Amino acid sequence: MNQHITVPFSGDEAKKLKAGDYVYISGTIYTARDAAHKRMYEAVKKGKELPLSVADNVIYYMGPSPAREGQVIGSAGPTTASRMDKYAPTLLDMGLKGMIGKGKRSQAVIDAIVRNGAVYFAAVGGAGALLSKCITSAEVLAYDDLGTEAIRRLTVKDFPAIVVIDSEGHNLYETAIKDYKK
Predict the structure, then answer these.
(1) What is the CATH number for 56?
(2) What is the reported pLDDT for 96?
């Protein structure tokens, strides 16, 4: 099923999304990769405030290439989500409603997705140049010293993704394999 969502979004909206749904995301999302996640995790453990409110928001696991002249952002493809698995449950428990990446997630992340009524979206790897066309603005929000891994605030319009793990724990990566073997 095709769905159009506006982010940030609530748990009730997240619960409407089902594994296998094609989703077009519009609104504000944030980027963060390994180094930024480590800093956020350490800040939380020390009781410090994060540079963004994760509640009801979406984090895209992406570090863009430099923008060419006249572009908002360079190539903006997803990175492997499992690299953030150590940190994701903490952010989900703080209210994060969605993550965009590529690849499988650990059982701890799946459990946190279900516990918090969140979702995991996959974006198409290798399509970073095309995905960047859905980004209408980009600004560094925090950790500028991390370069491409800095946290960015993106405004997106009809950013294409697929719900891989829904709020009930249904996992497209598992069900698709079973369906294919039939």
Answers:
(1) 3.20.130.10
(2) 98
